[in-house]
Each structure stands twice: as structure tokens, then as C-alpha cells.
Amino acid sequence: MSGLGYIRSMTAFSTLKPKKVLFIATRQIGDVLVTTPLISKARELWPNAEFHFLGYRGKLDMLKANPDIALTIETSDRPKLKEYLSLFFHLFQRYDLAVVTQPSDRAYFYGLVAAHRRVGVLGGHPQGLTEQDKVKKSKSDKQNAWKKAICLHTVNVDYFAQHVITEKLRLLEVFCKSKLALFGEPILVTPPAGDPITPSIAGQLHSPYIVVHPGPLTAYKRWPLAFWQTLLTWIVRQGWQVVLSASPAKQDLQLNKDILSLLDEETRSHVIDTAGLLSIPQAGTLIRGAIAYVGVDTSITHLAAACNTPTIALFGPTPPTNFGPWPNGFTGEQPYQLRARTQTVGNVTILQGPGECVPCRKAGCEDRASSNSECLDQLDPSQVIAALQSATNK
After folding, report:
1. CA-CA distance, 377 to 391, in Å (whole number)?
2. CA separation (Å) from 329 to 29, 203, 262, 390?
3. 80 exposed, middle or buried (CB, 10 Å; 0-12, 13-18, 19+)?
4. Which of 2, 124, 163, 372 has the highest count of CB atoms within 10 angstroms of its CB?
5. In the sheet that 342-345 helps form, which strands lie side by side, from edge to edge?
6. Does position 280 have pLDDT exceeding 80, yes or no?
7. Rounded CA gap, 160 and 316, in Å?
8. CA distances from 24 to 48, 54, 310, 382 (A)
9. pLDDT band at 9, cuts 50/70/90?
10. Beta strands 292-296 and 209-213: pairing type?
11. Interatomic CA distance for residues 27 and 204, integer angstroms
12. Burial class (CB in 10 A: 0-12, 13-18, 19+), 375
């Protein structure tokens, strides 16, 4: 299509008023949560439309009681042929518009099956850094060609300069007359509705308490055990209770046990370990009652920011400009700097370790999931304590 034809096509579809819209986020729970500003803005555009959401089974708790979603549809992350066929017949051309929020081939396939029209996110790679990056970009461009061909509008990922929430909101550019309509008002992340905390845990809580979430999905986002020991000991000495949080994953349960094993008996008596015992909505309830939250680069840290709790996020290889927890109510496209040892925006403080390579966006120093990250190994506990003092006015 020529440039002029493309502009005409964009103009023709800018007044689309879909009656049924499918949002697609086939990744982790944090990726689901960051779609909520997009959903809220779409609701402003189409107040009478019916919104459905497609994602992986067990990853949609972040949408519990979301007022804009009429139906959630779950699928396996590795569906077999029978499930594919069932989903195909369930989705086939039921929607006027599919909003594909992940750049995967599978997400686009679902969008193609489900809707008459689509908008979507396209994967990408940093440009102009190395010859290897250029090769990756060329390959990515070829893979993206068919996705662009089936969409009204696409948005390219920029892993360093564009925040993921900005990326999602830009999917609505084709339906808005100006950027002001998307970014001119406070942008809110909608957390899931809270569930009551299990009585056995609720009975142990006393205020003030701080929620600490040490476990990331991958090892290269970990902070050293001895640093957690120092931090938890300091928190308890302030007269505050510590509530340790973790997913039910084996490595996260073990990480919490390892941290607890380093604490002296007195400190340990002021720490509650909730590892694997809370659902996402229950975790939201817990975090809302905390005076502060400290966590690594993981989905629960995004949840803490969305709950309007003062949030301290420990970042290593991940660029905060791309995936830093959104400061709830921030107006604009980019809340963060790429590099800053400490930066606070709204209710969120992001801490980064030293090094010219920070953030590298690699999987740790060895670029593999089991690697360590020197930037996190050198992020001193005193930096985290100072951030907590500022967040709690201690």
C-alpha cells in the first residue's frame, strides 16, 4: 500500500465504533496488569462496547472484578490440537476488533481468527548498537511483515525508550485525534479487587508492616541473600513488622526459607512468611494495608504500585523506561530516566546498581536465566534503607 493509501486507510478506520472487542495478552500476570490503562481508555472511546480478554490459564487474576471486562477467556500456554480447534470455533469472527498486546505469532493468530479488524504490538530490537542487533532487526522486520499486513495500526516495541504502558495506549492512536487524548490526563493502572486474607495470616498481622517480595521469576533479577538479611533486620529495628511474600514456585519458597535462616531469633519473630499462601487478589489486600513495599523486578511490584502503596523497586538489567512500575496517576508518556541510582516518581522509587552497562536488558552478566547481575550484587542495602526512610518519612 502506498503512503497516501495508508493514510486514507487510517482515516477511514479512525471512526470505527466496535460493539465487541477482544484484548489479547498471552504472557505473564504482569503483562496482563499493564493492559488495564489501555482497557480503561478504550472504555472512554467506546462506552457501550462489550470487552472480552484472552490470556493464559492462571494468569488472569490481575483482572478480578475489573469493571470493564465482561468475560475472560483462558487458554493453555502450550495448547494441543484439540484445544486449538475448540478455541478457534469459540472465537471465530465473533469480534469487531482484536487488540493484540503481545508481539507473538500465536497472539496474532488468535486476533486474526477472532476479529474482522486488528491493532497490535510488533516486536523489535535496538537499532544501531551492534552488527548482531542489525541482523536481529532485519529478521524481526521480515517476521513482522504479515502482522502489519493484517492490522489497521501497529506499534513497535522500544525496549529502552518507550514505556510498556505507553506502548499499549498507542494501540488506540488510530482512533484518537491527538496524543493529548491518550496522555493528557492521569493514567491509572487498575489492580484486581481484593479478597480477604486467610484468617491464619490475618491474625498474625499488626500495623505498621512492610511487605517484602524477594523472589523474581528468574535468577538474574535476584538481590543477594545477605542484603535481604540486612534490610529485614533494619526494618524490624524500626518497630515494624515484615511480611515476606512469594509465589508458590519452588525456587521462591526456597529463597524465603534461605532468607529466614539468616535472621536472628528476635528478628525472625517479627517476620511473617506468606510464601505461596496468597492469591493475587489476596496479595493486593495485603499490600494495600502496608506502609511500604520492597520488591525486585517482578509482577507483584507492579501490583504494589497499582495499589498506591509506596513502592521500592530494585532494578538490574531491565530498563525502567520500558518496564518500571507505573506511578499511579502519572500524566505523560515516560515517567522514568534510563539510568539513575535513585529516582522517585509519585508512589514509586526505582533503585539501580552502579555500572555504565546498566541497564543492559540482557539476562544477567552471562545473558542466561541462571546468571547473576553485578549491578544488583552492588546495589547496597544502605541505598534501599534510605529509600524506605524517605518513603515512610522515618
Report:
1. 23
2. 21, 33, 38, 20
3. exposed
4. 163
5. 271-273, 241-244, 209-213, 292-296, 311-315, 348-352, 342-345
6. yes
7. 13
8. 20, 5, 30, 41
9. very low
10. parallel
11. 34
12. buried
Close Cβ partners of 155 (under 8 Å, ≥ 6 residues apart): 119, 120, 121, 122, 167, 170, 171, 173
Count of H-run helices and E-run strands, the chain: 17, 13
Give CA–CA dist 342/109, Å, rounded: 41
C-alpha dist (Å) from residue 301 to 123, 193, 295: 24, 16, 6
In sequence order, what DSSP letters do the residues of 371-385 get, joined into one string?
---HHHHT--HHHHH
Total Cβ atoms within 10 A of residue 260: 17
DSSP letters along 292-333, please? EEEEESSHHHHHHHHTT--EEEEESSS-HHHHSPP-TTB-SS
* Cα gap 198→176, rounded to integer Å: 44
Tallying the residues shown for the chain, one arrives at 394
- Amino acid 73 reads I
- The CA distance from 111 to 285, in Å, is 34
Q: What is the pLDDT of residue 7?
A: 39
In degrees, rounded to 5, the angle at the alpha carbon of residue 148 between the alpha carbons of residues 142 and 152 is: 175
Domains of the chain: 3-183 (3.40.50.2000), 199-392 (3.40.50.2000)
And the C-alpha cell for 239?
518497630
Q: Mind listing the pLDDT tens digit for each residue in 109-160?
A: 999 999 999 999 999 755 445 555 555 555 667 789 999 999 999 999 999 9
Residue 94 C-alpha cell reads as 465473533
